[in-house]
Design goal:
Layout: H1 7-17, H2 21-35, E1 42-46, H3 52-58, E2 66-70
Parallel strand pairs: 1-2
Helix pairs in contact: 2-3
Length: 76
């Protein structure tokens, strides 16, 4: 059985979680490019973490009409 970290674990890790983002940014951008998101799209980012996907979408020339992130950890 695999252990799944609970919200308390993620709350403790939230302050350092984005340290890995420089390693993931290129892959994140590639995935978002493949999705071909348009200005009329509405997106839900489940387990958003610290919101890296939402921040990347916000910085794009044609961001979606609405993007919402939800996470079980309030610190995330």
């Amino acid at each position: 059985m695999t252990h799944v970290p609970g919200p308390g674990t993620w709350s403790r890790l939230a302050r350092v979680y984005d340290w890995q983002l420089p390693l993931e940014r290129r892959a994140l951008r590639s995935v978002l490019d493949m999705l071909a998101i348009t200005e009329s799209d509405r997106l839900l980012d489940l387990a958003t973490g610290t919101g890296a996907v939402l921040r990347e979408l916000h910085g794009r020339p044609n961001p979606p009409a609405r993007a919402v992130g939800v996470d079980s950890s309030a610190a995330m």
